């Protein structure tokens, strides 16, 4: 008994000394607390994080790494992004263009040249780097502008044809040739005249399509969206016009907008799935149409051969009309009228035809008699 009492006392003392863990039920409607992403310390870990992009936690880890990494380590990761063309890393790479280390800016420009840039702000940021005091960075910035599809970068490149160093001027000329598909050599005046003409025509094209987007007809809106999707030189401006259409009321217009956005900027937008396209283009079901508009309105808006009801109604109407016509034709008044009409028609026809037939018959008889009559000596008589 004493042993049992001793054991019970020891257990009570242990329970009193142990920390009390209180479990609370989650508050209804409370937002879950997001756990902080695990920090990335080494270059290898940062490169491994690239495989999980565009996961938000991976992007946060990559941003944190770039914020605290040395210029050499950040440059290694940026070069890996460029070599592997890790396009989802673009949001983390763009801020590196403003890094204080020229080597990091160099690597960031190389990465952006490969993975691309897709906004007016990015273009303006790269244009500022053309004026950099280091020719190598300025030349890379010119090459980066030429790798895009935004023709609005042409003025900044033209400016460096005559004001930049030979290295920057050569990179700017190559970028102009790639961006515009024309070549005026180092003639800045000719390049400027070409750009003014191009912008006038581009503004007209964009204005026309922007007006068609406001048309109430969905087919017209879809045609305008598809036309904008083909404007590679005005890609950013086209994206700005198409993006609001992805929130339109008509499902077909939304699908067309999503397809155009994915065509112009595949790294930012994804193509709709086949199931989504079919669901958007499929007409409303018969049951839904009857429920929303009523049976009478539904049938009134259908073609004669769109539904079984319409086909049966059309066939029944045709049979009814044919039966009525046959009934009228078989009635006595109609038969008497048709007989009188037939006699009148036949009599008039005979009055016109009889003189002709009589003359033809007489002429034929005269010809026959002339050939059948013979002289007493057995020779045929010559026709008189």
What is the structure about, briefly put?
This protein is mostly helical and 384 residues long. Helix content is 68%, strand content 0%.
Ends distance: 171 Å
Helical content class: 55-70%
Our count of helices gives 19
Q: Quick one: how many beta strands? A: 0
Largest sheet features? none
**Over the alpha carbons, how many angstroms does the gyration radius reach?**
45 Å
Class from helix and strand fractions: mainly alpha
Mean pLDDT: 80
Report low-confidence residues grouped into runs of 5 or more: 1-36, 286-293
Beta strand %: under 5%
Query: Order of SSEs, N→C?
Result: HHHHHHHHHHHHHHHHHHH
Net shape: elongated
Key words describing this protein structure:
mainly alpha; 19 helices
What does it look like?
This protein is about 70% helix and about 0% strand. It contains 19 helices and no strands. Helix 9 packs antiparallel against helix 11 and helix 14 runs antiparallel to helix 15. The longest helix has about 40 residues. The radius of gyration is 45 Å and the shape is elongated. The protein starts with a helix and ends in a 12-residue tail after the last helix.
